[in-house]
Design a protein that fits this description.
heterotrimer; A mainly alpha (about 350); B alpha+beta (about 600); C mainly alpha (about 350); A: about 350 residues; mainly alpha; MetI-like fold; two-stranded antiparallel sheet; 15 helices; globular; C: mainly alpha; about 70% helix
Chain lengths: ~350, ~600, ~350
């Protein structure tokens, strides 16, 4: 098991290098003028475009640019993002906690909701409940995220005033900006508690309601489907039939025996969900105005801010690879039959 | 699970008990588009300008909503020499920077010299350099392209060094290379804000001496200290800006202590999604929001209980937009002009040099459609490429509007009648997301294709980078371009659009010696009346020549919470709106009732 | 003995247990009917929207390219005996995919006789955008699945067939592809090669093949281990022959079914990207665009009710939901039917 982990860890840098080369290579299809578009936003500002190109060495060769970039990366410098006007690493450090906080709050309710729906559908297979759950889940999944989000926004925020956009109420954001409230982790709810301010924590939660709800509706269908089919497999297995034959109550069989075994594929899905979530977080951050990684990297990609794009690709590469690693290890813990050869 | 969900919901409702509203001394403006830089010498966009005009100050500034009346700020008075080349300003005493340092002439000298030294390619430095040192308005590194001799550099530095001089601690003098009637208003643009030189130098900015000046030439100031630190004298000081939202607070040591601003905290929030901004206004979390288009204003905002829409026919932006006919289209590898010949499958590179083609295009464009549909009736047609509020704008010049008969007549005359027989195919490109450009292209397409089945116009969306590259390389045959005023002088527009050496005119190869002479003459005199006459002549000549077709200018609006007002508002208005201010009004003038 | 004989004998498909199971599943029937409906709408798009084509000035290029006069358009496009009908159904010119704009007004207009589903933001005809958008949906879905499946089969096949170091290398490459968030990949590709439907499809295909390759490789390894393959090998068939004749046909079936069920997911992703502004240019018939035109009007008006502009978002949303539902119900049903345990 240890060798397996070490081997997987050793692959990581190679994967990352491949990712960076891939993106950096693709960026070179652009002409220097096109890359200079990062810096100017109107024709008025483009008066001295040649100057801009020279200023940022946009006319140098691929290997010169990639070489100098790689050297910097190995020194822990990911370059300068024009979108955020600061070093990429600084931006990531600032925004990663925001996205992580959002993702954490999104992850567990969605997973739980999906598991609950999957269980219901499997136990009541082909009955009305099954049909309703499935249609609901798939409809939620194919609903355009924006339409759903905008209705939540209108009802919960514009009409009921019960949740908020952004990260916390403005008065707290001002206090964080001025330093009256200290920033420890960059996650509002955690920092609120560390400052001993329960009201800040609550305000943070309040601003997470809409993103979490949106994501739950959109993403839980995947989990529901996987759990339903694997639970069906297990319910048909000899093991469960035996339990049933022993005369155990149906509820105990369903929950204790069947679900525990059906959860294995869910671990896989949970691993995959991390990659999915990166996309989900991107969309949601934009609509609900949450200053996380997505809100920075989508415009950065559109603006051809390639240090930012490469940085975000590296980051997601690391996260997904690590998540896969964690999933593999979890497998071993849940299902001892899996060996690591 | 259901329980969990309910808990979250319940918590949300508890928090919602109190109706959210910004505090009585806090002002929240939600807008879109990120601030580019808070270094005055770098910033050249309105989002940055809206912050800078509040945390920095210039020597003089626009008075209230006027663009022709000015009031002293960091100066107290000024005088111009008889030859119009020397400007002397008496400075205000007892002005404190946010650091606590006292402002003297050294700071003014440093600020302007820094502007001339650095002058990055994407900044506004060019128009100061043109007045004060020449060199085509380009910084030393790019002017010489790295091939400068020491003598060249010394000469360049001396030009900078001689352009600003301190007579004493509170008197500064500017020496222009030639007469420039717009220099005084140029000094009101945020780029010429006065910086705290001691503070800046102490934190690693340019030393202010010849020693390291060349290192700073053309440098991207977004990587410097002042990019996100404030060294100003303004009524507000920057609390925090980390690339997105801006937090600022009232400056206690402000020189004009008799007029203490009412707002203590200012928050400028970047909320790119318009629907989210609207909901925030509705929920009472915003005092002002930026609304992009008239249709949204009319449907989503009008009728909202706690919001007000302020608008006026006089609120025309200090900007001009026009359709440009490119007279020197780059023919090489250009898919936008098809075959590149007059054979029906393309257009020749000199397509628009024929004035009949330009006129035919102008008569194929429906100005009323744009005003009625795109701006829902709230726009005025422009007779020339100059904002109507500017000196010299002549409302009596006729405009081109849809006239299918005339369009046909001119198309039949074009290229000796050949064009009508062969037909043509061309592509009008726009940068994706720009509705105005798209609509203009579609209107032209619809009307011109209806004239003759052999006329084909394709409308193509391009991402901004591709569009900019095609623009730079002169590949776009017809395109829409806009110019926002840098300073309140007609020359800023007229020269740009119509002079053969102007930025836009040069780009599209428009050249008329008669026109150039008129513009240069207007540049060399200061008498407003005479200048206005000359610009009117320019307008008539431009109508005959049609190098560009000016597009209607939409009237402006502002969306505010019900209780927001400003000082110095004109009678019958809740706020003033100065088109030269990026934020329409200054934060220090905001009052909540 | 012929190794083929060791494979289980099969009834004709319509009499098989699998099909019976499928037929008895009500959700499967619903899914199939929905999908059939979409196919009909896609095919008959020109006939359905003939009046819009004839009556909206901005649809002129389409009629011109079809070679039909405005006055005769409705008749020609609805008459299967007319050559124009078949041209429009089978090979419509590209200009027909541009949604006609009734005017240049930004405001939506409610359903009327001329525009049965109303006009969306910027006066785009909703009926037109949705019917022709169905064509785009199928086109995008099938093409992306097709390309990624082709790449996946070739690469996964090579991996499974050759084994050893090649297998290892290929699997590491799929690791790289799989650890890439699809959205970011699509954004980069479409920004670099110019945003457009083709680039988005290409990007989606280039990111999706890895999953198929993996699955196909696993399937091959499983099939390889089966008895009839061993038998064939024992009879002296060359490895390539064994692979092409026995391994490939057996492994490919499951993969095809699996992949076809991804069509719905791809269309949803593509419409999401189109909403973000990555994909077809503004005005191209595509469901994501229809949502994007509705963007500012989903919540109705401030003076009136929130449902003042219901038609701008309900129709496109319905299309997307039903399309996703159709493929998913069908997919679940096929999977259930194929599962011998149930």
């Amino acid at each position: 098991m240890t060798t397996f982990i070490v081997r997987r860890l050793l692959q990581l840098p190679i994967v990352l290098l491949a990712i960076s080369l891939l993106i950096f290579g693709m960026m070179q299809f652009l002409t220097p003028e096109q890359r200079a578009a990062t810096f100017v936003k109107s024709e008025q500002q483009a008066q001295h475009l040649d100057q801009v190109i020279r200023q940022y060495n946009l006319d140098k060769g691929f290997f010169v640019q990639y070489g100098s970039w790689l050297k910097e990366v190995l020194h822990g410098n990911l370059g300068f993002s024009k979108q955020s006007h600061e070093p990429v690493l600084t931006t990531i450090a600032k925004r990663l906690p925001v996205s992580t906080e959002l993702a954490l709050y999104m992850f567990f309710p969605t997973l739980a909701f999906g598991i609950w729906m999957g269980t219901m559908a499997a136990i009541h297979r082909d009955k009305l409940i099954d049909q309703i759950v499935r249609v609901f889940a798939i409809a939620g999944w194919s609903l355009p995220t924006f339409v759903l989000a905008i209705w939540l926004l209108a009802v919960l925020y514009g009409y009921l005033h019960c949740c908020g956009i952004g990260r916390a109420d403005d008065k707290y954001m001002v206090m964080f900006a001025q330093g009256t409230l200290k920033t420890y982790t960059g996650m509002i709810t955690v920092d609120g508690l560390l400052n001993g301010r329960f009201d800040v924590f609550l305000s943070g939660l309040k601003h997470l309601v809409m993103p979490v709800l949106t994501y739950m509706v959109v993403a839980s269908a995947q989990i529901m489907r996987v759990l339903r089919s694997s639970m069906l497999d297990v319910l048909n297995s000899d093991y469960v039939r035996t339990a049933r034959a022993k005369g155990l109550p149906e509820r105990v069989v369903n929950l204790k025996h069947a679900r525990r075994n059906a959860i294995i594929p869910v671990v896989t899905i949970a691993g995959l969900m991390i990659a999915f979530m990166i996309e989900g977080v991107f969309f949601i951050e934009i609509i609900f105005n949450i200053p996380g990684l997505g809100q920075w990297s989508i415009p950065a990609a559109i603006q051809l801010d390639f240090p930012a794009v490469i940085g975000i690709a590296l980051l997601t590469g690391v996260s997904v690879s690590l998540a896969n690693l964690a999933v593999d290890i979890l497998y071993g813990m849940i299902d001892p039959r899996i060996s690591f050869q | 699970m259901r329980k969990h969900l309910l808990t979250i919901l319940a918590l949300g409702f508890v928090g919602a008990m109190a109706f959210a509203a910004t505090g009585p001394d806090t002002y929240v403006h939600m807008t879109y588009g990120e601030v580019d830089s808070l270094d005055p010498a770098q910033a050249y966009d309105t989002a940055s300008g809206a912050i800078l005009e509040n945390i920095y100050e210039t020597l003089y500034t626009y008075k209230g909503q006027s663009i022709t009346e000015y009031e002293p700020v960091l100066a107290t008075s000024y005088s111009i020499s008889d030859d119009g080349k020397t400007y002397t300003f008496k400075l205000r005493h007892d002005v404190l920077f946010h650091s606590g340092n006292r402002m003297t002439c050294r700071d003014v000298e440093y600020s302007i010299k820094r502007l001339l030294v650095t002058n990055p390619g994407d900044s506004a430095g060019w128009f100061y350099a043109q007045s004060l040192i020449g060199y085509d308005g380009v910084n030393a590194k790019d002017y010489f392209g790295g091939k400068a001799t020491q003598a060249d550099l010394d000469k360049y530095w001396n030009a900078i060094d001689n352009s600003v001089k301190c007579v004493d601690d509170y008197t500064v003098q500017f020496h222009l290379i030639k007469k420039d009637p717009s220099f005084f208003v140029k000094l009101m643009y945020t780029a010429s804000s006065v910086l705290d030189s001691k503070y800046a130098i102490a934190h690693g900015e340019w030393s202010g001496t010849k020693k390291d000046w060349y290192d700073w030439a053309g440098k991207d100031l977004r990587e410097g200290f002042l990019h996100n630190h404030d060294a100003g004298t303004g009524a507000y000081k920057l609390v925090k800006w980390d690339g997105k939202d801006v937090y600022a607070e009232r400056f206690i040591g402000y020189w004009d202590y008799a007029h203490k601003p009412q707002m203590k905290n200012i928050i400028i929030k970047v909320v790119d999604e318009q629907a989210t901004r609207i909901q925030a206004l509705k929920a009472g979390d915003a005092d002002r929001i930026t609304v992009n288009d008239r249709a949204t204003l009319e449907t989503q905002i009008r009728g909202m209980a706690n919001a007000k829409i302020l608008e006026s026919d006089k609120w025309l932006g200090a900007a001009a937009t026009a359709v440009f006919f490119n007279q020197k289209i780059a023919a090489k590898d250009n898919p936008l002009i098809g075959s590149g010949k007059l054979d029906g499958n393309g257009i020749p590179a000199d397509f628009f040099t024929d004035i009949n083609v330009r006129k035919a295009f102008a008569y194929s464009f429906n100005q009323d459609d744009i005003i009625k549909d795109l701006y829902m009736g709230k726009a005025v047609p422009l007779t020339m490429a100059l904002p109507p509020s500017f000196l010299g704008y002549d409302p009596n010049i006729p405009i081109y509007n849809l006239d299918m008969d005339k369009a046909e007549e001119y198309f039949k005359k074009a290229f000796g009648g050949k064009l009508w027989d062969t037909g043509f195919t061309m592509t009008i490109a726009y940068n994706s997301g720009n509705t105005t450009r798209k609509t203009v292209a579609e209107i032209l397409k619809q009307n011109i294709e209806a004239l003759n089945p052999k006329f084909k116009i394709n409308v193509k969306a391009m991402p901004w980078p591709q569009f900019l590259a095609a623009y730079k390389n002169g590949q776009l045959p017809a395109l829409v371009l806009g110019w926002g005023a840098d300073y309140a002088d007609p020359d800023n527009f007229i020269y740009t659009f119509y002079h053969s050496n102007g930025y836009f005119a040069k780009k599209i190869g428009y050249h008329n010696p008669k026109m150039d002479k008129l513009i240069e003459e207007a540049r060399s005199i200061t008498d407003p009346k005479k200048r206005a006459e000359l610009y009117s002549k320019v307008g008539y000549l431009a109508h005959d020549d049609v190098p560009v077709l000016p597009l209607p200018s939409p009237t402006g609006w502002m969306v505010l919470a019900k209780n927001v007002y400003t000082l110095h508002a004109p009678a019958g208005m809740d706020v003033y709106n100065n088109p030269m201010r990026s934020g329409s009004f200054l934060w220090k003038d905001i009052i909540k009732k | 003995m012929n190794p083929q004989d060791m494979k289980p004998k099969r009834d004709p498909w319509y009499r098989s247990k699998t099909f019976k199971r499928f037929r008895r599943n009500p959700l499967a029937i619903v899914g199939s009917l929905l999908l059939l409906g979409f196919v009909v709408v896609a095919l008959l798009a020109p006939a359905i929207t003939a009046p819009q084509l004839a009556n909206t000035p901005s649809a002129r290029p389409c009629l011109r390219d079809l070679g039909v006069k405005r006055s005769e358009a409705v008749e020609a496009l609805r008459n299967p005996l007319n050559a124009v009908f078949w041209k429009a159904v089978l090979a419509p010119p590209r200009s027909c995919y541009n949604i006609p704009r009734a005017s240049f007004s930004p405001l939506p207009k409610p359903p009327s006789k001329k525009h049965p589903m109303g006009l969306s933001g910027d006066s785009y005809d909703i009926l037109y955008g949705l019917t022709w958008g169905t064509r785009t949906a199928f086109y995008v879905g099938f093409l992306v699945v097709g390309i990624s499946l082709a790449i996946g089969i070739v690469i996964g096949g090579l991996s499974g067939f050759l084994g050893g170091a090649t297998d290892n290398l290929i699997m590491r490459v799929t690791d790289v592809m799989l650890s890439f968030p699809g959205l970011v990949f699509v954004m980069i590709v479409s920004v670099i090669f110019g945003s457009g439907l083709t680039t988005v499809m290409l990007a989606l295909a280039l990111i999706r093949w890895a999953g198929y390759a993996r699955f196909f490789r696993g399937d091959i390894l499983r099939t390889k281990a089966q008895d009839f393959v061993d038998a064939a090998r024992a009879l002296g068939a060359s490895p390539l022959r064994v692979f092409l004749k026995h391994v490939l046909p057996n492994a490919i079936g499951t993969l095809l079914i699996l992949a076809s069920m991804d069509v719905g997911a791809i269309v949803l992703t593509a419409s999401g990207l189109s909403f973000l502004g990555l994909g077809a240019p503004v005005g191209y018939a595509d469901w994501g665009q229809m949502i994007s035109f509705a963007r500012g009007y989903i919540l109705g008006t401030a003076q009136g009710t929130p449902f003042d502009f219901w038609y701008v978002w309900i129709y496109p949303t319905l299309m997307l939901v039903l399309f996703g539902l159709a493929w998913n119900l069908l997919g679940d049903a096929v999977r259930d039917a194929l599962d011998p345990k149930s």
